[in-house]
TrEMBL record:
Phylogenetic lineage: Bacteria, Bacillati, Actinomycetota, Actinomycetes, Micrococcales
PANTHER family for the chain: HTH-TYPE TRANSCRIPTIONAL REGULATOR BETI, HTH-TYPE TRANSCRIPTIONAL REGULATOR RUTR
Gene3D superfamilies linked: Tetracycline Repressor, domain 2
Residue ranges for the DNA-binding region feature of this UniProt entry: 33-52
One Pfam family here: TetR_N
Nucleus in keyword set: no
SUPFAM superfamilies: Homeodomain-like, Tetracyclin repressor-like, C-terminal domain
Keyword Transcription among UniProt keywords: yes
The protein's name in its UniProt record: TetR/AcrR family transcriptional regulator
Entry keyword set: DNA-binding, Transcription, Transcription regulation
HTH tetR-type domain sequence ranges: 10-70
Entries under InterPro entries matching the protein: DNA-bd_HTH_TetR-type_CS, Homeodomain-like_sf, HTH-type_TetR-like_transc_reg, HTH_TetR, Tet_transcr_reg_TetR-rel_C_sf
């Protein structure tokens, strides 16, 4: 029997997670069954359960994947010289969220599930703290690049990193709840987001 590569396993896990996200968008996390995910993915039950023990495992994996993709994007942007402006970084993050998630209601549901699922809460919290730290590092470098003394840059960045996260979360919540929310307008406006 041919040996399955890690790349193949990762691709299969992603295929399952994407199928689950489509189901969650249609029926909600609680309204989606493993049978729904199996049918949506086109894979066998054995293939699904070979990668995930439960629907909750899939939710955790999908949410981790979404956050890790954002961390990778910010890491790439933070390596540029000169550094992109904070508004451009926010725009890139939100564009990535739109691309990966599609329906923002899914993330709102994941946040709600994290309040009652200790493992999902820990996963979301750990990843969000890492994301906030990465934004603070980027902002520290950005402030220094724009003439802020080193001694002031880090505390200022620590104050602004949570604000950037709030702008991301605000986009997601408004996209999920407000029927006529202008996401493109929000992204356009956020390009002008300036820090002082």
């Amino acid at each position: 029997m041919p040996k399955v590569t890690q790349e193949h396993r990762d691709a299969r896990r992603l295929q399952i997670a994407v199928a689950a996200l489509r189901c969650f968008a249609r029926s909600g996390i609680r309204g989606t069954t493993m049978a729904d995910i199996i049918a949506e993915s086109g894979l066998s039950a054995g293939a699904i359960y070979g990668h995930f023990a439960s629907k909750e495992d899939i939710v955790r994996a999908a949410s981790r994947e979404i956050l890790e993709n954002r961390i990778a994007e910010v890491s790439e942007l933070a390596a540029l010289s000169p550094l992109p402006a904070p508004g451009a970084v926010l725009n890139a993050i939100l564009t990535g969220v739109r691309r990966d998630v599609g329906d923002p209601r899914i993330l709102v549901q994941v946040w709600a599930e994290a309040m009652t699922d200790p493992v999902l809460h820990a996963t979301a919290s750990d990843t969000m703290l890492a994301f906030r730290a990465l934004l603070a590092e980027y902002l520290t470098d950005w402030f220094v690049e724009h003439g802020v003394p080193d001694a002031e840059a880090r505390p200022r960045a620590s104050r602004y990193a949570p604000l950037m996260i709030s702008l991301i979360q605000g986009f997601i919540v408004q996209s999920a709840i407000i029927p006529d929310f202008d996401g493109d307008g929000y992204l356009e406006a956020i390009e002008g987001f300036a820090l002082s």
